[in-house]
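Hi, here's the filled form for the chain we discussed.

Project: internal
Contact: R.S.
Residues: 427
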Amino acid sequence: MLSTLKDAWGIKEIRKKMVFTLMMLLVYRLGASIPVPFMDKRAIAMFFEGSSGSILDFLDMMSGGAFSSYSIFAANIYPYITASIVMQLLTYAFPALERLSKEGEAGRKKIQQYTKYLGVALAAVTAIGYTFGVFRTALQSTNMLQNVIIILSIVGGSQFLVWLGEQITKRGIGNGISLIIFLGIVARMPADITRMISMAKAGDLSWIAIILFAIFAFFVILFVVLLNEGERRIPVQYAKRVVGRKMYGGQNTHIPIKVSMAGVMPVIFANSILAIPSTIVLIKGKNAGAFTNFIHRWFTTDFAQGIVIITILNIALIMFFTYFYTSLQFNTVEYSKNLQQNGGFVPGIRPGRSTSDYLSKVVNRLVFVGGIGLAILATLPTFLSIFGKIPMKFGGTSLIIVVGVVLETLRSIEQQMLIRHYSGFLK
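And the returned structure, exactly as it came back:
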């Protein structure tokens, strides 16, 4: 990894992109310290005291501390992520959106525009819920204009992060949205590690528990790397063709199919959805009514039955989004058609539908292994934190995201270096 970064830094074009990415991430961290006006920061700080292990800690970790300080980035980019999930599901549900998605770049831009509109609406709902629900006791506004300013500050901050992520993707290195989530998690890790050590020194946490957590983190990192790097190579042969006096084709190659083609996106999507019930309980209050009490008991980790249901839902959602996201990235029917049109075939498999069925069979098997692996890694820390009394705010889910984003970013750097070397060879 260090060797790749060193080599990339020596290439002027890539160095500019890396510097641009770092500057944009610096802007994100600076913006996370800008407070929302007309809110009592002391009341918010008191609200977070004694909230260890709750959904508050998770939301604060994923926002890089912007939630506990209630800055303009308190909602982060999760309204946009939720909007992306909804739009992708609607694309399969409504034929009009499906046709629009197949209209090339123009259709994708239109769907992206709808996603942004929905993201703004969800950011507004999130801002209203946080301000007048979760932190209603910290509200210091005295009129409607001040309330509007509070909401617009959070919505504007969320949309600015979406824009920032797009700029990183276009002009920087890696996926901008993933890097923003990555930095939010990493920014909280030093404070969380220091807190665990302080608890161990005070006798509130066993040193053995910390050692076990370190061993667990090592194996999580190792397993995530294996999932991301593992692939099956399907051999492909191209038939020889004579065009004029030249002969084309005849070479052997392969189709690399990743075990975890979806990367960390299924984990991010699943956590975004599972955070909704806990957020509703926070906004309404634990004893706000029969419906809220039902959600609190059955869909949060405060009760034993809630832990079981959340675990089952987490596994099911990760598996679903793993298959769903993989189907978006690797369309076996289109791939087999393109392969047949270019004179390629898989040895022992007839071109056309047989090839498509064979690819689907291979992909489904690999996706199942990758999805189960992600589900286990994302679920196991819940039991360790509850039964082992380890404050694992940066446990399995966050480690999966961090390691996955690092690997994806390094892969992006390597691809750009490869393109740069090819262009230099052609010159």
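Let me know if anything looks off before we file it.
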